[in-house]
Amino acid sequence: MPAASILVADDDTAIRTVLNQALSRAGYEVRLTGNAATLWRWVSQGEGDIVITDVVMPDENAFDLLPRIKKMRPNLPVIVMSAQNTFMTAIRASERGAYEYLPKPFDLKELVAIVGRALAEPKERAASRGGDNEFDSIPLIGRSPAMQDIYRVLARLMQTDLTVMISGESGTGKELVARALHDYGKRRNGPFVAVNMAAIPRDLIESELFGHERGAFTGANTRASGRFEQAEGGTLFLDEIGDMPMEAQTRLLRVLQQGEYTTVGGRTAIKTDVRIVAASNKDLRVLIQQGLFREDLFFRLNVVPLRLPPLRERIEDLPDLISHFFALAEKDGLPPKKLDALALERLKRHRWPGNVRELENLARRLAALYPQDVITGPVLDGELASPPVVSGRSGHQSVDSLGGAVEMYLSSLFSGSPNGVPPPGLYHRILREIEVPLLTAALAATRGNQIRAADLLGLNRNTLRKKIRDLDIQVYRTGG
User: Per residue in 28-39, pLDDT tens?
Assistant: First the structure.
């Protein structure tokens, strides 16, 4: 039986040589070219069992050539390589009908394995959907290996309705990924409905999800649609799924098993056509062991697990991310900003407990509060430095008021700074240091009930919600 023939197109002679050696050692016949015209001639003449091509060619972009290849030979697998390692590159490869996308540099063993897998699949394999859609914005930022893995998984999921479970720490961008799955997937023309389980009173979650009939409970004066009904034909994103009470978990499991639900107080089963994407910053397996989460529901939701890396695992993405957030701030009317080399190095040393959300908040704060166009290292030192710990028992001082505690804090801060002067931006830093424990204490006292916490603080509920988001305060409802 003759060896499979592989057509390789890349204008880089060194890459062609390396690919030729690796594929020839694997027993394949290899034909090499440095331009798209020759590749197209070979394909149109019926040559080759598989194509490996770079995106950027001297005479034509592979994304323009791919639809023609798929139209002429729909079952010919095409593997796309690219040094433009962005989310949209992976999506465009999928949109144009590529079998696989490989960001450069890649592992040659992985390439050989992918070639073997592609050749082993039935030739009747349905052709991937091609298209000419162009995208106006890039929803995910980063070229690190960790993000490349995410992009490739997302690209494979775009044309499926598989249920996805996104895990990751707070601030890693779980909702952003869920939106990307919707906006660039087969349900893009349907609604995207997000619901945060941790933000809804536990006794109202079932009504929130499934709707209720008039008179179903006290205060239900009219029929209300639930999130499943609102998401019909689209995507329902269930954020912080680990905070869902057991009763609601049982009803959700029934929906996933049977494809239908009933409203609270209703009797008629309602068919549903919704893709479920769930997310959690908690380890659901631990919750299962504690009896707080149904194991059967976990397996129903965890069809495709997707872990988002914390920012500290993708530090190399910091330059792209901070530039992106500065650009967003500029679109909102804030002055343009850049970081000098020392400031960028200071960013890389930070642990980022709040992840990408913390970085975005920092970028907006820098754009709003500092007059200079270039943010320097000392400014970042001040923004990211941990505040000194002030003990009320030090010396013979006694603190009998908040003002006295703040005065002690400031005294320690000034005396511990070079030349007795802390970095610029002190006013807003001090307000933030007071605001976070104040809001946290109010939320703790009201067991996470934001309506009651807003009333306690004397704030508008929307104002409180905005501060919780901007300050990256975690809210945990404890019931009661």
Answer: 999 999 999 999
Q: Give every CB contact of residue 376 below 8 A, 6+ residues apart in sequence.
A: 340, 342, 343
End-to-end CA distance of the chain: 72
Q: Which amino acid is at 457?
A: L
Q: Whole-angstrom Cα distance, residue 326 to residue 338?
A: 8
| Cα(469)–Cα(127) distance, integer angstroms | 43
Instruction: Answer yes or no: pTM beyond 0.90.
Output: no
* 170 closest CA partner among 285, 325, 311: 311
Answer whether residue 214 is part of any domain.
Answer: yes
Q: In the numeric block, which tokens belong to residue 395?
A: 């010396």
CA–CA distance, 69 with 337 (Å, rounded to integer): 44
Residues with Cβ within 8 Å of 251's Cβ and at least 6 positions away in sequence, in order, are 206, 209, 210, 261
Condensed to tens digits (0 to 9), the pLDDT of residues 11-54 reads: 999 999 999 999 999 999 999 999 999 999 999 998 999 999 99
Contact (CB, 8 A) for 62 and 33 = no
Structural tokens at position 408:
């002690």
Indicate the Cα dihedral angle 18, 24, 26, 30, nearest 10°.
100
In a domain, 34, yes or no: yes
Contacts 24+ apart (CB under 8 A), 368-374: 368/329, 368/334, 369/425, 369/428, 370/337, 370/424, 370/425, 373/335, 373/336, 373/337, 373/338, 374/337, 374/338, 374/339, 374/340
Is 206 exposed, middle or buried, given 0-12, 13-18 or 19+ CB atoms closer than 10 A? buried
372 Cβ contact list (under 8 Å, min separation 6): 379
Final residue before a domain boundary, out of 80, 115, 147: 147
Domain that holds residue 297: 160-309
Q: Are residues 136 and 198 in the same domain?
A: no
Two tokens, residue 310: 């914390």
